[in-house]
Amino acid sequence: MIHATFIRRKGNLESVELTGHAGSGEYGFDIVCAAVSTLSINLVNSLEVLADCKADLAIDEIDGGYMKIDISHITRKTDEKVQLLFGSFLLGMTNLAENSQEFLSVQVIAN
């Protein structure tokens, strides 16, 4: 199962940590993994291209199953575009989790 943990501080989304493997299909044919990967890489690209916001990105490129997208260090993290893009990612992940509960869980921690 993939666990997506979002951190929200003072009302603003600041980071998401993705851990685990969906296991909804064979390697290379796991549609839940593909959806999560697509949504998360799209967030990183959208933040950079559409909002001029460079997120810190940590990925386990050897074993997979880990990605952290962090904008807590960005001074413009409260920018409407940045929060809209992060909120859209949260919405996509939440909708995916509702339809794939055995493969993906989403949690939002508010500090």
Summarize the structure.
The chain has 111 residues and is α+β, with helices and mostly antiparallel strands.
Largest sheet: 5 strands, mixed
Helix content percent band: 25-40%
> Which of globular, elongated, flat, extended, rod-shaped describes the shape?
globular
Number of helices: 2
List unreliable stretches of 5+ residues.
Answer: none
Question: Which structural class fits the helix and strand makeup?
Answer: alpha+beta
The N- and C-terminal alpha carbons lie at a distance of 25 Å
Lateral arrangement of strands in the main beta sheet: 3-4-2-1-5
DSSP summary, beta strand count: 5
- What radius of gyration results from the CA coordinates? 14 Å
Proportion of residues in extended strands: 25-35%
Overall mean pLDDT = 95
Order of helices and strands: EEHEEHE
Describe it:
It is a single chain. The protein starts with a strand and ends with a strand. Strand 3 and strand 4 (66-70) form a beta hairpin. It is globular, with a radius of gyration of 14 Å. The protein contains 2 helices and 5 strands. The protein is α+β, with helices and mostly antiparallel strands and 111 residues long. The protein has a 5-stranded mixed β-sheet with strand order 3-4-2-1-5, with helices on one face. It has helices at residues 31-51, 80-99; strands spanning 2-9, 12-19, 56-59, 66-70, 104-110.
